[in-house]
Design goal:
Helix content is 81%, strand content 0%. By secondary structure, it is mainly alpha-helical. The protein has a domain at 1-100. Helix 9 (156-183) packs parallel to helix 11 and helix 10 (191-204) packs antiparallel against helix 11 (206-233). The protein is globular and about 50 Å long.
Length: 274
């Protein structure tokens, strides 16, 4: 263990730096998106007097430094959580990490960079019920870049698996959206969710995509049951459930598991039920 830590001290320093940067970007991005209407209104105002009125009514948008200063506790806690998660991803998700294996480092680094984006998606989709196209495009660009870099260092099997994952994400959630429209006349799956899981599919491959789907739907089902029970005792004004947060939980959990772990668990459960 001591030898492993000695070999990977650069990685630990990088993890701390990424954790601090990641938590800062998460807070700044979520603040700006949650206040996007105010920021846009100020930018679109041609008259200075109109901008002043908006700022007096809504409050002036904070600068990145002010956002972090006002949320110093959240920033500190989030940084610590990221550091812990980064280390867990390293040792639970890939126990054979070694300084000599650059490809492994890239695979772990990809997850570390994607994690803060997942947290931002979780917060925004929970509060606004939308996953912004800009963040989805950024997510896809990062994953595609790492896929290309790692793919160059390995054989065709790696690239093929990732492409299959992309196709799996598109098909699974695309078909759910179509079936929802056809059979219940509602959007069972938002376009943002489809784009989100298509990008994630490129990172995790087809087996983990199935794991994520099972985790997300199980969590959503449990949450729906709780909401239904509460509805009997208390009237809930808005019981719409955004699916993005459940998908995010599924993705984060899958990072600590081998591909197909959840699929195997469900398979064993159904075998016992026979």
């Amino acid at each position: 263990m001591t030898e492993l830590i000695g070999k990977n001290y650069i990685y630990y320093i990088l993890s701390v730096i990424l954790a601090v940067i990641g938590s800062a970007l998460t807070l700044i991005y979520t603040y700006k998106h949650l206040n996007i209407e105010v920021i846009k209104a100020i930018k679109d105002s041609k008259k200075i007097s109109d901008r002043v009125k908006i700022k007096r009514k809504q409050g002036s948008p904070l600068t990145p430094f002010e956002i972090l200063k006002r949320n110093i506790v959240k920033f500190s806690v989030l940084s610590i959580i990221y550091i812990v998660l980064f280390l867990l991803i390293t040792y639970l998700g890939d126990k054979k990490l070694d300084i000599s294996d650059f490809k492994r480092y890239l695979q772990v680094l990809e997850k570390l960079i994607v994690l803060p984006i997942l947290v931002a998606i979780f917060i925004i989709d929970t509060k606004k019920r939308i996953i912004p196209n800009r963040v989805l495009l950024t997510l896809f660009e990062i994953i595609a870049g790492f896929t290309l870099m790692i793919g160059i260092m390995t054989d065709n099997t790696y690239m093929i698996d990732r492409i299959y994952g992309l196709i799996a994400g598109l098909l699974i959630f695309g078909l759910m959206a179509i079936m929802g429209k056809m059979f219940i006349g509602k959007d069972a799956m938002g376009i943002g969710d489809i784009k989100f899981m298509t990008a994630i599919g490129l990172m995790v491959g087809p087996l983990k995509m199935l794991d994520i789907t099972l985790i997300a739907f199980t969590l959503a089902l449990v949450f729906s049951i709780i909401i239904t029970v509460f509805r009997k005792y208390k009237e809930i004004e808005d019981d719409y459930i955004a699916f993005g947060p459940f998908l995010t939980f599924g993705i984060v959990i899958s990072l600590f598991l081998n591909p197909g772990t959840i699929v195997n668990i469900f398979s064993d459960i159904f075998k016992l039920g026979k």
